[in-house]
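Appendix B, example 12.
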Amino acid sequence: MTHANPAHAKTDVIKGVNQMNWYVEVMRKYAVFQGRARRKEYWMFFLFNILIAFGLGFAMAFLSAMLGFGQSVANATSTLYSLAVLIPGIAVGIRRMHDIGRSGWWILFPIVNLVMFCLNSQDGENEYGPNPKGV
């Protein structure tokens, strides 16, 4: 995307960095299972997690081809990244369930929780804490 005004280009970059903050915030709350997570927090973490995994896979495949590494290096890197984001992914999923007033155990039902992840937050405070949109 080209902009006639350089200030607009800088604004787009800042918006992208601000979106990445959702991913970083989930990683900061590495194993926090209490509280609530906004729909945007969950889906931005999901999006950036997918983008990073694809980028990492592409980079490792490229380096393996260029430097002659075997698939073991690429597989090990992918496995390490997956393990690193496993706990935060579960934690943000549980906090998302809390946000709609459900128990975190609902993440064990894949089809049902996919629909629930799309639901809007419960208004006001619920048994899991205050609404993160209001904070």
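Helices lie at 6-28, 39-67, 71-99, 110-117. The mean pLDDT is 85.
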